[in-house]
């Protein structure tokens, strides 16, 4: 039973445009949601997170939106750059003693020059 | 400051053998988690240690075990290796006891191949 789902395995965007990566979850007890970027042969790199009590968090070109009623979050990258090409993972945390992250299966973003 | 260091980077083992992977977290980080990444299953949580105690465990067989030392360094061990254990094993460290609020910093992983 997948608690965190990324339904699009891949996304292709033109340089300078907006990239929107989506994530759905099923467990309403998640307290934090995080986005990670991963290049081949490297570990995931933390990008941005959002608390379940907020609906938006922004950090430079990256903005994460959370819609709790729809159990949906999205990562917006504006403007997209070729260096953003990577696999993006959505993850969720239950908090408390559950100090682990539950990951989606990732979306491969390709930004074309 | 130094990141999360995992050794070795690559490992080839034979079915039935055992293997030990090592992880040195970022200085000051007390929480260390281990994840397995495979093409089919994605990133799956193995276990988490905080101040030398296993706080949480994922849904993996008992062949997978780990420990954390007083300096926060961690090791994971897989016994009686199976072909399906071939994967990228990632270690992540965090300042606090809940990774969600602080975010985890991942190492580059150990690529284990079982033949």
Give a quick rundown of the structure.
Chain A is mainly β. Helices cover 0% and strands 58% of the residues of chain A. In chain A, a hairpin with a 2-residue loop joins strand 9 and strand 10.
pLDDT averaged over residues of chain B = 91
Total beta strands of chain B: 11
Report the radius of gyration of chain B as a whole number of Å.
Answer: 13 Å
Identify the biggest protein-protein contact and residues per side: A-B, 30 and 29 residues
Q: In terms of structural class, how would the helical and strand content of chain A be classed? A: mainly beta
Largest sheet of chain B: 7 strands, mixed
Q: Low-confidence spans of chain A: pLDDT under 50, at least 5 residues?
A: none
Give the fraction of residues assigned to helices of chain A.
under 10%
Report on the biggest sheet of chain A.
6 strands, mixed
* Unreliable sequence segments of chain B: none
End-to-end C-alpha gap of chain B? 37 Å
Shape of chain B: globular
Alpha-carbon Rg of chain A, integer: 13 Å
For the termini of chain A, the CA-CA separation is: 38 Å
How many DSSP H or I helices of chain B? 1
Kindly estimate the percentage of residues of chain A that lie in beta strands according to DSSP: over 45%
Mean pLDDT of chain A: 93
**Helix segment tally of chain A:** 0
* Percent of residues in beta strands of chain B: over 45%
Total beta strand runs of chain A: 11
């Amino acid at each position: 039973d997948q608690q965190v789902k990324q339904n699009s395995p891949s996304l292709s965007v033109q340089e300078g445009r907006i990239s929107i990566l989506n994530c759905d979850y099923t467990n309403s007890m998640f307290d934090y949601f995080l986005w990670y970027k991963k290049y081949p042969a490297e570990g995931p790199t933390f990008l941005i997170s959002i608390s379940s009590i907020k609906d938006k968090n922004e950090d430079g070109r990256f903005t994460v939106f959370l819609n709790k009623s729809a159990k949906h979050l999205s990562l917006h990258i504006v403007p997209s750059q070729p260096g953003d090409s990577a696999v993006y993972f959505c993850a969720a945390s239950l908090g408390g003693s559950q100090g682990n992250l539950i990951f989606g299966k990732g979306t491969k973003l390709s930004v074309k020059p | 400051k130094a990141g999360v260091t995992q050794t070795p980077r690559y490992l080839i083992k034979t079915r039935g053998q055992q293997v030990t992977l090592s992880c040195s977290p970022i200085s000051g980080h007390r929480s260390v988690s281990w994840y397995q990444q495979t093409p089919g299953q994605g990133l799956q949580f193995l276990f988490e240690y905080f101040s030398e105690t296993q706080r949480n465990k994922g849904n993996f067989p008992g062949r997978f075990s780990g420990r954390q030392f007083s300096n926060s360094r961690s090791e994971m061990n897989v016994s009686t290796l199976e072909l399906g254990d071939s994967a990228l094993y990632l270690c992540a460290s965090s300042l606090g006891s809940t990774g969600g609020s602080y975010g985890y910093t991942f190492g580059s992983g150990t690529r284990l191949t079982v033949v």
